[in-house]
Fold this protein.
Amino acid sequence: MKIFKAYFAGLKSAGKSKKMAAVIYAVIFLLALVLAIPFHTALLSQTGNSMALHALLKHFNYTIFSDFMNSSGKVINIFILAALWMGIFYFLFTVFFTGGILNVLSDGNRKFSILNFLTGCGKYFFRFFRLGVYLLIIQFLTAVIIFFPLNKILSTNYETTQNEASLFYIFLTGVIIFAVLFILILIIGDYAKIILFHNDSGKVVKTIGKSFQFVFGHLSGTYTLYLLILVIPVLLFVFYVLLDNVVGMISGFTIFIMFLSQQAFIWLRVLIKVWFLGSELSFYKILNGCDIQ
Amino acid sequence: MKPHQRFIFALYFIFSLYFLFSCCGFAFAQQLFNPPLSDRIASYDMSVKLNPDKKTITGTETLYWKNSSTDRISELRFHLYLNAFKNTKSTFIQESSGQLRGDEMDVSSGLNWGWIDVLSMKVKDGEDLTNKIKFIQPDDNNKDDQTVISVPFQKPVLAGQTITLKINFESKLPKVFARSGFSDNYFLAGQWFPKIGVYEKAGERYAVKGQWNCHQYHANSEFYADFGVYNVNITIPNNYKVGAVGVLQNEKQNGDGTKTLTFHAEDVIDFAWTASPRFKIAEARWKNVKIKVLLQPEHYAQADRHINSVIYALEYFDKYVGKYPYPNLTIVDPPLRGSGSAGMEYPTFFTAGCYWGMPSGIKFTEVVVVHEFGHNYFQGMLATNEFEEAWMDEGFNTYYETRIMDNYYGKHTSYINLFGIRIGDGEYLREDYTGMPNPKIAPVFLNSWQYVNGGYGEFTYSKTTTWMNTLEGILGQKVMDEIMQTYFKRWQFKHPCGKDFIAIVNEIVRKEFGNKFGEDMNWFFDEVLYGTNICDYKLENITVGRVESPKGIYDSVSAKKYYKLIDGQNDKPNYNSNVLISRLGEVVMPVEILVHFDNGQEILETWDGRDRTYNLIYNKPAKVVWAKVDPYNKIPMDVNRINNSYTTEPESTVINKYFAKFLFWVENIMLSIGSLF
């Protein structure tokens, strides 16, 4: 029951945080536009007055795509690389926004105030930044710890098995183990944020330890809660793929419709992030005997 | 003769007749083709035994070799292909660095090396040649390469005579990484026995005088051999399932845990076989061709993919090239760790390749099956020299692979059709050539081992496929089919070379088109086969200007003409449209240009493509809106199709689509990286 109470409390919090999500979404949108507008210009200049790209309107056309990449691939690759750098850059924004989100969520009944949001962002940035670095290191180490034994098991099995199905299942097992551990680290990270925020503490390493204790102390609850919310973005993604298949991007009108859908999808992703933190904050409070609103 | 004597005689006569017919019947059962389909220069009777633990094949070989030239021949040359895997100094390993098609030679165990020893060689009832055998290196003088032997002998083989040799040999199969070898208890015996080279008589292919054509085994080369009849007894443990070139004629138990299988093949250029206790067998039939698929058990669910695609290939070749004459066909599916032997062709027998759980949207298995089956024609029956003219088998065969795949699985989906990613087999192969960092690095016409800086696969398979598709685009499929059918009919069971094929192209094109494409089509082959240039036409620009009606008063001797009268007569607008096309590449091709006007009218122009630029000028009441060079994609050789069109009214719909998608991708990347916190 506590899980569901927290689950719906988070949903309620997310419902109240539409404006905050809109602010975060606007930042994401503007940052993405920084790349997307020059990308648009580059596409126009690279294709000039050619009609060839029209073949890509209804379906993917490998001949046109490959010829385009052969002639303009260097330009496009710059944008792909820039998008990755933008993602890394946005990591700092995520760290920055987290304090603001928690600040807003903790004042559940107050009307959204950008000042309140930004105050939280600024106040917790550096401690969350340190937490972020530690979490990345833990995630990296987990990946390494999984990768090397998995690689060893796979290569050993490759030398003995006559059936690639067994290799696939070994690989799949490795991926599942990694996913389980990776989610666990994300959960520990989320509760570490909440504990840091809740206790207004600056001791990041100690807080990770506390979070570790808390999560393992309530492993089924924290994990189940996380998975229950994780189902939503997965379903959302499936819905988006289906919508894309049904609507397609084959005319000015459908491109516009899908553009709106895509942006709604991004906004919902932000809102789900709020949902995660809201539910976890509620769960933490419930288990610690605090009132939740 | 007394009655009882008559009775005994009649009985004896009937019994004799029965015996005679029985024997004849056995002989007829053995005979597949009467008259023979080929001149049967090199025929082999072999009895061999596989030792699955030592990975060796030991046996005897009786070779019947006919001197089809007018020369007196006192030297024979043989391929000992397996010696390519004997040590790291062989030409094959030196050239390949121990890697082929993504597979790497495993040198961690002494069991993994491969070799072949000729234990003895003797002319039947004559000279012992064993001590006369010497290794030669006709291609690169690499003294460590032992893949070719020369065997001189005293009594020359005269024109038309046949020499019979008795050879004892032992072959050690390598751990498979390049076509042939073992992987656990899977064996693929290819190029596994002492195999005589081809003596090219004067006038055959490029030979100006009689000469041996017997090349070393190279990383980038396959094979070349004469046609013949093979009778092969294979002794193997009872639990093994065996597939081989030709038809299985007999199987007997030896009582010692082994069995002996007898295979018979006629008018083929090679003999290969496979054995494994794990094979699960699927069978089918197409017309009179019995199809057998030897599958790994975990791949059995994909038996239909093999069978359906090979039936498509059989049907297509039968309809568009010529008849498949053999009574059977065996497809081998190697195990994962034997995948180095996958995708290899032998007459009536080939290895495919598939993976467990491979989605049906990835047509990898179908492509390999169709391709390897096609080699029954290109090299199997049209026995070109793969060492010297690999494009004639790999290229021609891949051209048919694309035709078959595109025909049965869709032009844009025949290679991959998964999650919205659509790639056609022909598209993929074209890009393999046009996407090369340097498509001018070598010509197609090159000995296969001379692609020292890469490009063997791209030129022999992909560029040849692309220019064959271009030739089809220029001539039309009907004429192309006539060319290929003539080529097949005229050269099947012989050794054609490039100039023989070009002669047929010239003959058919002249017959069908006269001088439309010039005196001959040599210009085409000079560019695509012997040359290295690229083809790139560009629709450079379209300019449109309004032609003002003349105004004012113009005198003539007897009258004045008034223009621009007040009532607006002669005021209908006229436009001067100029369409400029450029030839950016050096290759010259005749091209079509489709010009579209704003009133919906379309004009299809033709240009010989020779000049560097070409102007189309129209003075009409309608404006040119867009134009396309090669609008029907007849010239896939054109390396850049993006610049083949031009519109005066550029439309941004597609750009907007990719703008939206890119924006969405960037946002998702940001959120996904952000979600690590």
Q: What stands out?
A: Chain A has a mean pLDDT of 93. Chain A touches chain B through 76 residues (CB under 8 Å).
